[in-house]
Design brief:
CATH superfamily of the largest domain: Ribosomal protein L9, C-terminal domain
CATH topology of the largest domain: Ribosomal Protein L9, domain 2
Order of helices and strands: EEHEHEEHEEEE
CATH architecture of the largest domain: Roll
Radius of gyration: 25 Å
CATH class of the largest domain: Alpha Beta
Strand content: 25-35%
Helix content: 25-40%
Distance between the termini: 71 Å
Low-confidence stretches: none
Structural class: alpha+beta
Mean pLDDT: 92
Strand order of the largest sheet: 4-9-8-6
Length: 147
């Protein structure tokens, strides 16, 4: 018997998969507990539509990430900070500040956890950073800290 799983079932498959199970297992366990539904034409159509929708969403996210990469690649983000003697900053420049500056200047929302900085930024100068926009799509940027 072919069924479409509505939830993850250990030993059978993951949610949304079309699996072939024995008749007794399907009728006596999966169907009564709401873990699966019989694979008829309507269920197959819903499964196909869900897969198409998921793929469309992934394609859209990749397209947006590539557009953002084109805007950010090799750009310099300027951050103003106060310092004490000898050019040492009060505190350090964080990924949150870089994220806010990217949002303000380029209107691109980047999660602070997706920004990786080489070392800590505790003085004036130019530093390298990477922004992860999507799985496998990163943009290299420069962070310039000045008064």
């Amino acid at each position: 018997m072919k069924v479409v799983l509505l939830q993850d079932v250990k030993g059978s498959g993951k949610k949304g998969e079309l699996v072939n199970v024995s008749d007794g297992y399907g009728r006596n366990y999966l169907l009564p507990r709401g873990l699966a539904k019989e694979a008829n034409a309507q269920a197959m159509n819903e499964l196909k539509n869900a897969a198409d929708s998921k793929q469309f969403k992934i394609d859209t996210q990749i397209k947006e990430a590539n557009e953002a990469k084109a805007k950010l690649e090799k750009k310099t983000i300027v951050i103003h900070a106060k310092s004490g003697k000898e050019g040492k900053l009060f505190g350090s420049i964080t990924a949150k500040e870089i994220s806010n500056e990217i949002k303000q200047r380029y209107n691109i929302v980047v999660d602070k956890r997706k920004i990786s900085i080489t070392g800590e930024i505790k003085q004036y100068g130019t530093f390298d950073a990477q922004v992860k926009l999507y799985n496998g799509i990163t943009a290299d940027i420069y962070v310039e800290v000045c008064e």
